[in-house]
Every structure is written in structure tokens, then in C-alpha cells.
């Protein structure tokens, strides 16, 4: 449908002559909220209050570099100079690149701190989603990550349920477009709820929360990516594929394999809260009491055999 609305100003605030864009501001806010959430949960599970602050110092720059490199590799022809490549004020970041570099950073950080990587990953998974949820609204302000044109019936449905400030920004180059950024943001909220249920109600084996994050985020991303008009593409043999869809399939398959392998080989021998699979923490009174009871039963059985 035809529309005439002007897009919102992408600049959040200007400090002197330096513009601060909504995109960067929302990513920063997402990172700060994610840090607070991860820090509180980390303290509950015995990590120092500065653990995730120190991790963030390394992970955020790594994530930005990874997100930009991933995007530039698939859009190389758009950039004419080094300054064009490093200028991220107007977008051009890919979540899969950010995820890859931040996970690698967290892995080595965990090694240095002698903390289980899976413990860190499980704690951080909901925080990652919080950052992604807010980050998609940066796409909203930049008028990017949109789908194709909507039908007149779809317009009526959107107009009934969405506020005008969202509808106005759906007008891109004179046409109302599917707000795929909104679809992904809402999907991420549902995945966040699932992860919190796993955390507080299920207490699964370590690694399950993080791997479920990868699986369910990728499921949503696969279908939503098919609606977008600004996807990155990769030529695979004679077929041109959307990069995000291919990566999503690999993440889903890889996560399921890792989850099954860790369980079968006994590597996932602790629950999310640190309790060993079986029910008792090492050296706990409950475990000692149970062990003593088993010894007493064994002694009685031996005496019975002697008689």
C-alpha cells in the first residue's frame, strides 16, 4: 500500500557536533540491562559480582567487531574505504557474527577464570536475548530489517492492533512493509520466557539453557528471514541461499547434536544450579546421610549372610 509518512530522525541526541544514533543507544542500553540481569544471576550461583563486568569489557568489543566483519564479508562491494567499513553508526551489524565472536571470547575467559563455560553460557543466554530484543528496535529507527510490501488486508489488521508510531515507521520508500524486526523482537520475548522457565522451574543439565537459546532463536530467525528484503546471501554450489537461514539450520542441528552428545557421554553431569545429576551436592549433609544409610544396610546384609 502507498504511504507518505516521513521516517523518524535516526539521531537520538547530539553532544556538541557528535551525533548519538538511536541504533547505538539501544544496543548500549541492551548491553547494560543484560549485564545487570547476568550479574544478579551470577551472584546467586556463586560468581563474583564483577565477573560479568570483566567479561563484558572483552565481549562487547569482540561482538561489535564480529558483527561488522560478518556483515562486510557478505556486502563487500558496498564499501569503498576503511572508514566506510568501520562506520557502524547507521547499522550494518549481523547478530550471527556478534554471537560467534562473543561466544569465543566467553570460552577463553572461562578458561582463564577456571569456571565452567556452560555455566557462563546458561547464565548469559537470557541476557543475550534481552540485548537482541532491544537491538531490533534500533533496526526500527534505522528503517532496516523489514520484509516485503503488505497487502491491504494486512494493513487493516496492523492498523487495528499497532500504534501509529510503529505504523508510520513501516512506511519505507512510499510503501508499507512487513515489520520483520517486530516479529523477531516478539519471538525473542517468547524464547526469553521459555529460558526463564527452564532456569527457575526445570533446573536442567548445564548447557541445556544455552543450547535451547540457540535452537529456538534459530527456528524463529529461519522463518522470519524468509520474509526480509535485505538478507545477506551466499552462493553455495549453484544455489543462492540466505546466509542467516543457512546458519540457523547449522545452529539447530549442531545444538541438538551437542546436547545429545554431552548427555550420552556424561559431560553434562551437573544441573544448572550446580547440583550433580543424581540430586546431592558433593559433601552435603543429605548426601553423607544417604551414604551412611547405604553402608548400614550393606553391613546388616553381610551379618545376615554370616549367620
From TrEMBL:
Cellular localization per UniProt: Cell membrane
Gene Ontology molecular function, alphabetical: transferase activity
Sites where the protein binds a 1,2-diacyl-sn-glycero-3-phospho-(1'-sn-glycerol): 136
Domain of life: Bacteria
Disordered: annotated span: 277-307
PROSITE patterns (UniProt xref): LGT
Catalytic activity, EC: 2.5.1.145
Keyword set, alphabetical order: Cell membrane, Membrane, Transferase, Transmembrane, Transmembrane helix
Chain segments annotated as transmembrane: 20-39, 51-73, 93-110, 117-135, 181-200, 207-224, 244-261
Membrane topology of this protein: Multi-pass membrane protein
Compositionally skewed regions (Basic residues) per UniProt: 287-307
Cross-referenced InterPro entries: Lgt
Cell membrane found in the keyword field: yes
Pathway note: Protein modification; lipoprotein biosynthesis (diacylglyceryl transfer)
Assigned protein family: Belongs to the Lgt family.
Function recorded in the entry: Catalyzes the transfer of the diacylglyceryl group from phosphatidylglycerol to the sulfhydryl group of the N-terminal cysteine of a prolipoprotein, the first step in the formation of mature lipoproteins.
HAMAP family in alphabetical order: Lgt
The protein's name: Phosphatidylglycerol--prolipoprotein diacylglyceryl transferase
Naturally occurring in which organism (per UniProt): Allobacillus halotolerans
Amino acid at each position: 500500500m502507498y504511504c507518505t509518512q516521513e521516517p523518524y530522525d535516526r539521531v537520538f541526541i547530539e553532544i556538541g557536533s557528535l551525533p548519538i544514533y538511536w541504533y547505538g543507544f539501544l544496543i548500549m542500553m541492551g548491553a547494560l540491562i543484560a549485564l545487570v540481569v547476568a550479574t544478579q544471576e551470577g551472584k546467586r550461583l556463586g560468581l563474583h559480582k564483577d565477573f560479568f563486568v570483566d567479561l563484558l569489557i572483552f565481549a562487547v568489543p569482540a561482538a561489535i567487531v564480529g558483527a561488522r566483519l560478518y556483515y562486510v564479508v557478505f556486502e563487500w562491494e558496498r564499501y569503498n574505504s576503511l572508514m566506510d567499513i568501520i562506520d557502524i553508526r547507521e547499522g550494518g551489524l549481523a547478530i550471527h557474527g556478534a554471537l560467534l565472536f562473543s561466544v569465543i571470547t566467553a570460552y577463553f575467559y572461562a578458561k582463564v577464570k577456571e569456571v565452567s563455560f556452560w555455566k557462563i553460557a546458561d547464565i548469559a543466554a537470557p541476557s543475550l536475548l534481552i540485548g537482541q530484543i532491544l537491538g531490533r528496535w534500533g533496526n526500527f529507527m534505522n528503517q532496516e530489517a523489514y520484509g516485503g510490501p503488505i497487502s491491504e488486508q494486512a494493513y487493516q489488521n496492523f492498523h487495528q492492533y499497532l500504534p501509529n508510531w510503529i505504523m508510520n515507521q513501516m512506511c519505507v520508500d512510499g510503501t508499507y512493509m512487513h515489520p520483520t524486526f517486530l516479529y523477531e523482537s516478539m519471538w525473542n520475548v517468547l524464547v526469553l520466557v521459555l529460558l526463564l522457565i527452564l532456569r527457575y522451574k526445570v533446573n536442567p543439565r548445564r548447557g541445556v539453557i544455552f543450547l535451547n537459546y540457540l535452537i529456538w532463536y534459530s527456528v524463529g530467525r529461519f522463518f522470519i528471514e524468509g520474509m526480509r528484503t535485505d538478507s545477506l546471501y551466499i552462493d553455495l554450489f549453484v544455489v543462492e541461499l540466505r546466509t542467516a537461514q543457512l546458519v540457523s539450520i547449522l545452529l539447530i542441528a549442531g545444538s541438538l547434536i551437542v546436547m545429545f552428545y554431552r548427555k550420552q557421554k556424561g559431560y553434562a553431569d551437573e544441573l544448572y544450579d550446580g547440583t550433580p545429576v543424581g540430586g546431592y551436592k558433593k559433601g552435603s549433609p543429605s548426601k553423607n546421610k544417604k551414604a551412611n544409610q547405604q553402608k548400614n544396610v550393606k553391613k546388616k546384609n553381610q551379618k545376615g549372610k554370616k549367620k
